[in-house]
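Note to self: the last two entries modelled the partners one at a time, which told us nothing about the interface. This time every component goes in together.
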Amino acid sequence: MSILDFLLGRPLSSREEQGQRIAVLAGIAIFGLDALSSAAYGPEAALTVMRPLGALGNQYLVPISLSIIALLTIVFFSYRQTIAAYPGGGGSYTVARENLGSSAGLLAGSALMIDYILNVAVGISAGVGALVSAAPSLQPHTLALCLGILAAITLINLRGLREAGLIFMAPTYLFVGSLLLAIGIGIFKTLAAGGEPTPVVAPPAFPPQIAAVGWWLLLKAFASGCAAMTGVEAVSNGVTAFREPVAKSAQRTLGIIIAILIALLGGIAWLGQAYHIGATDPGGPGYQSMLSQLLGAIAGRGAFYYVAISSVVVVLVLSSNTSFADFPRLCRVIAETGYLPTSFGARGRRLVYSEGIVVLAAISGVLLIVFGGVTDRLIPLFAIGAFLAFTLSQAGMVMHWKRTGGRHARHSIVVNAVGATATGITVVVVLSAKFMEGAWITVIMVPLLLAAMVAVRRHYESVAQEIAAPLEFSPGKPNPPLVVLPVQRWSLIAAQALRFALNISPDVRAVHIECEESDRLVKEWQDHVARPARESGLQEPVLVVIESPYRFVVTPILTFILNLERQNPGRIVAVVIPELVESRWYHYLLHNQRAALLKALLMMKGTGRIAIVDVPWYLERKQRGGD
Amino acid sequence: MSILDFLLGRPLSSREEQGQRIAVLAGIAIFGLDALSSAAYGPEAALTVMRPLGALGNQYLVPISLSIIALLTIVFFSYRQTIAAYPGGGGSYTVARENLGSSAGLLAGSALMIDYILNVAVGISAGVGALVSAAPSLQPHTLALCLGILAAITLINLRGLREAGLIFMAPTYLFVGSLLLAIGIGIFKTLAAGGEPTPVVAPPAFPPQIAAVGWWLLLKAFASGCAAMTGVEAVSNGVTAFREPVAKSAQRTLGIIIAILIALLGGIAWLGQAYHIGATDPGGPGYQSMLSQLLGAIAGRGAFYYVAISSVVVVLVLSSNTSFADFPRLCRVIAETGYLPTSFGARGRRLVYSEGIVVLAAISGVLLIVFGGVTDRLIPLFAIGAFLAFTLSQAGMVMHWKRTGGRHARHSIVVNAVGATATGITVVVVLSAKFMEGAWITVIMVPLLLAAMVAVRRHYESVAQEIAAPLEFSPGKPNPPLVVLPVQRWSLIAAQALRFALNISPDVRAVHIECEESDRLVKEWQDHVARPARESGLQEPVLVVIESPYRFVVTPILTFILNLERQNPGRIVAVVIPELVESRWYHYLLHNQRAALLKALLMMKGTGRIAIVDVPWYLERKQRGGD
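The predicted structure of the combined assembly is written out below.
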């Protein structure tokens, strides 16, 4: 256990739960990383769509960013209200389920689960991708780097929420600080230059214009830019992780995250337009990220540039941590309603929902391995889940206010209805714009996951019904079982098992598969067992020798037991299996594992009337022999 | 089981053993493939060493081949005698062990085991290498081809010795036939041309001479050429596989194999010299195997050439089959003396020693994977094992004749002593010539394997001593165990387990880890269990509720059981574990596997006084409830 203690920390008592709760500053690092890191790729995604417009595309960056910021503001007010209304953790699942019915809840839940899983794979792979393009010699180790980072993040999260917050705070604030500083310098320079600043390092020239401005293109640019909004729902899912007063702490955290995000998005857009920055071809040789261009234009390629760019890479990698904070909580909430295995609800040694963390790490690890650590093709998939959840959760809030009324109900309904409509439209736009690029996978995955969850709940219901407690239990007169004891040769192991058998029932049958040593066993049984039993006036244990022309050992014993059970209705058959327990794992190879095989087959083929009794014999350890 | 029947054939009864024995023709295919295929690479190996001599090297081919043939003849007579002296299977292990002591036996045994394993990897990889150089588009699939062939050969061998013989006969005789035919044509043409035949396709020119003729070079060439002798010991290991009279059949098989091998080696050497054939650089671009040059020179590049070359490739691949015939028999013989796990001695459904086959396939599969299907670097390793075994076995025979005497003892001693000396010298030459190239690995592996086998035997001896049958067994008065029953909630599963517990002992304690449902369980236990038991006048089963601040469930139960055992010396503790058995494997994920964990921990941490009783409950199957 000491290795576990070292890796994961000492177990925390359930009473220490309050100490694990987090305050606003840590909350921003834990639940905000996903949202904040979006600022690094959202505006670039919009610009990339507008590349066919050449230099003209740059002109639309500010208007598109403003619409995204407007939508973000609506979503912010909407989630603020959700947090206030659901201080017990108002994830999209809960809100949609309670207000729109369980199907809507499951739809939001499965969309979010897929979103969280993709976020881990894409976040880590994007960060490693940036690292590898800076240090090409690491290229062959892409997958190993991805998996190593995944393992580290998993371990940190298993150590508990508080520790994760402490560890992730420094990079988060370095990222926010250096970007805000760069934006401040940029704004100053731009204003000083009368709106036309001279870049320190000039950005690449725009490609020639090859398309006309059209509504569909601008809508697609908007939809791509909406990637900047993913991760905003995180706080509302994790309300219960905050210190008292939970709702206030959570609201304040969300408010600060959104404010920073708006400052970053607005600043990047305005400066991007002022410095005439366009997107470079993402797959092409001269690729340079928009943030890199902007930082170079504002501050040149000095130490500051490298600090800022490094913090971007780190935050991209760590953005996956938000999934680790939220996915287990989401799974727990769904498990509590019976749609996922109950074990998702158990708190591990550090009071986190360990199973959710491990499952998330495993699935995203598989994704990383399948895609070789390069998950670009998954990116189109993952805004859909987030926006579907936004829409359902806000539609749910509209119903909530309608039902509960209250002082500001009318006002709240408007806020949430506008939010639901705007995000709903975004879902449709993103889905149609990116359907062929891979969004269709989400369209298939969500219903599959939903169906699986319904099947899980149905299974639990049928089991619960099947094993419902009996109204009456009559102990009755004890009825000792029929005992079967497989014996290979007469030894201390067999003797110990026989002693146990005779202690639980007078009715013992030893079975033996005929081999070269059979005659000897029959004689020894007569001398050492049958005769002493007769002399003590006990019922004589029978030795049954079974022929086996095909040299099978386990199958004939199994057949014997199943026949015995069939011929003795109303009696329980107890199979007493003497088993050698090796003191070293490699000794395992030296002894045949027929006992294990027989146990497994009895478990599989048995009926409710066969019990399996293991009488272990510990090799090379002092047996504390019984009676 | 029907898939197994299809893949491996129906199980064979032990009485069908005689029908599985093989005659001379099949014996040549099974035990001779390794030896015969050596003709394809032995002479070439000698020529390759002599490349620095340029055209001069060619002149030494016949003398070197003659010395190898002489050594081969000695070894042949020596093994003929071994077969006669050990008709029960006189492998090098048995002969060395019985005459020189068990250390010598283990030395021979481990050398042979390593030789057999390497032979599989090298044979398959050499054949696939030849195939790939003929069809370069297969290059990327090298490893897959190797593993596919390994799987096919394994499967054929698991189907039984007789089937393997039948399947491998055709390629063996095609190989022998086409090579002998080519040699015949070549001899005719050479004689007709007065010793200087005109090649149909001229072989490549010799490289310039860059070294002088020296003893060490010629000795190295001889040592390399000795690779042609590997596989000769195979028949003597497998004597018991032959039809009656076993010794005669085996001797005749060995005689024919050696005669063909000598004809092939002699013919190839003589014609190689007559046609002025030299070795090309094995790693170089213009590489062409010596056999390919010779066949081209004799018969041109027509259909015959391709048939003959294909048969060479097939036979190289199949030469690994000899290992599959012998390795399991060797392991069985070693296992019977206690130095390897006893399971190597069990005959599988088709009367072959399946475990040895599977282990051989697994180890050589790992070798192939580690070396990516290209095992050139293993080749230097594997003549050593064979020659070490030759030497020990013949030295053993010298002692055998000395001890037993007999009519021709003097004559036999001379034959075997010459053989032992010649092969012993070869071991030293090969070892020193190839030490740096990889032979040192064998020098490390053999002692390691030897030490492992000694450890295995020591373990078996200590176990046998520990569990030796008790002289006296006193059944005594039955002493019912103390029963512990972990209960999570009151359900039909718990009720079934409790019923079993009460049937084997009146002394039952239920343990429960405190949780939210504890109060309900305490009440239900009172109503459904304690009260009815009291009313029936039975001993009341106690319910023990244990607190668990760290939310562990299994550990506190384990501690409770271990304490109970310690506090009740002289009593056996039976832990009755109610276990849900899912009807579908994926339902496994939906239920926590605490029962399995508790069982595993009890098995590990338990003492000889704790028995584990599994009372399975079959979900979604009609329980045939007891009493």
